[in-house]
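hey so i finaly got around to running the thing on Ubiquitin-related modifier 1 from Ambispora gerdemannii. pasting the sequence first so u can double check i didnt mess up the copy paste, my clipboard has been acting weird all day
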Amino acid sequence: MSLKVSLSFNGGMELLFNNVKQKTVEIPASINNSNPTTMKDLIRWIRDNLLKERPELFVSGETVRPGILVLINDADWELEGELKYEIKDADDIVFISTLHGG
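ok and heres what it spat out for the 3d tokens, dont ask me to read them lol
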């Protein structure tokens, strides 16, 4: 079984993903030993399957690096449990860089 998830990369994040701003992907419903797929699993999956360059600008350890706003279905991921959030079919997940050069 797989989950269909809409991903968006904004605020410069798209540069790390070959200038792709939006992509619908299918991910396994259970990436991690038959446990539900979480945001932690999704971030790892994005890093391994979609990220084209400079992973240090997207991830730090097992999470997104500071300065990246993450929205899950238009809500701040902090309200949804951050890395523990269990991905659901048709979720809309947005990554926005809040850091800009000057």
